[in-house]
Protein 1
Amino acid sequence: MWKMKYIVALFLLLTPLAALAAPVPGKTVLTISAGTATQTLDAAALLANPQTRDITIDDDVSYKKTMHYRAIPLATLLHGMKLPADSVLEAVANDGFVAALPLDLVTHTQKGAAEAFLAIEPPNAPWPALPGKKQSAGPFYVVWLNPSASGIRTEQWPYMTAQLRTADSPAKRWKELAVAENVSLESPLRTGQTLFATQCMSCHKLNGAGSADVGPDLNLPMNPTEYFKADALKKYIRDPSSLRHWQGMQMPGFGKDALSDHEIDLIVSYLEHMAGRKKQ
Ligand code: HEC
């Protein structure tokens, strides 16, 4: 019985702590950091911003249908912030997912290019749950108008975003991702590296490098090209559930619109190459 008392005492002690850590209801905030400057914006203020408008996304990558949003151009949000050169904008979700968005596209400097928006989930009119998930894409979701004009990839539509921050581009930041120096500049291995950084590193690390923490490291301790038959690995990337299936699986399939057969080959060649370049 004495144990019970301790458990109750511990419970009483922890309850107020848990309440402190919980987010304040009705206040959903987005943190934006560029270089050394940081600003925090709440959803209500963003919805009230005169630059926020209604947009229609015809082929929403996450909802897989036409969606309507209240959204503000990312370029407007970043306006006036000093953006370090050779950096990307990382969109960080609460679950460890981190997408890297090219800054020149996000700041929308080229005419006719894709345009990035931050869609804001209205607290009084929440979005539906994402297909196969219990939650919606809120509180903040990066969507694109005209995405094909700039080759925007499916992993560059980060949902459940809580933070935007500038960071050095992956190739500059992590030499652990680099191909061997004697690989020519035109080698398809380098294209594979870039594709891997955009489509896979939003969830995976490689050689311990990367910001995300959703899936396993794809080189340490073993590289999937060392234990998957080549065809099975390509099949897995196209559709993980074609190899094995369970309720909690999180890795999305990459349809042909997300990665062509050739692009999957490029990623696998890069992985094969990196199996010989392990960094502990
Ligand atoms: C949205 C997150 C996400 C993205 C994006 C993603 N993965 Fe995964 N991946 C996972 C998770 C999580 C697992 C662990 C299995 C699971 O839960 O589905 C996994 C498992 C794997 C495995 C199996 C490892 C093993 O030993 O079982 C391979 C191989 C793999 N991913 C390769 C890739 C490649 C290549 C890409 C890019 C084309 C990619 N993944 C993109 C989340 C992701």
Protein 2
Amino acid sequence: MRFAGAITGFALALAACAATEPDPEPEVGRALYAQYCVICHGESGRGDGVLARDLPVPPADLTGLAARNGGAFPWSDVMAKVHGYAGRAHVMPEFGTVLTGPTVMWRDEAGTRMETPAGLLAIARYLASIQA
Ligand code: HEC
């Protein structure tokens, strides 16, 4: 049960903070990104993954999410898209079925408390940390 205990501790640590506060577990989001996203969006997040050139539409530059949103990281939009966003040409996969597991409460940009999978929030926090 040590594994379950670690997950619970992670969820509680996240639950205590708003998404915009420093991530207590930054390596979790980085590891999930490496596992699921690097192949298209690349190590840098700029859309230069090994699969990128074979796709009909280029993977988005994930270091420019804040810049393209007037300088504010679009937390809710990013999480909605990663969770289940068909996107252009249905190239960007939906990760809602993969990023399941324990949920945490976080506050969105408007201060509304939202329940969301811990892994999804961890990826969003990682992306927020690599903004240009
Ligand atoms: C199979 C390749 C592929 C994988 C794997 C992939 N993406 Fe994408 N992603 C894309 C493509 C292509 C686009 C842009 C085109 C579109 O809208 O479909 C995109 C768009 C996005 C967007 C929207 C960007 C914007 O400007 O609104 C976000 C956010 C995103 N991806 C995050 C992720 C994350 C996080 C992961 C890993 C959990 C991931 N993607 C995995 C191909 C991929």
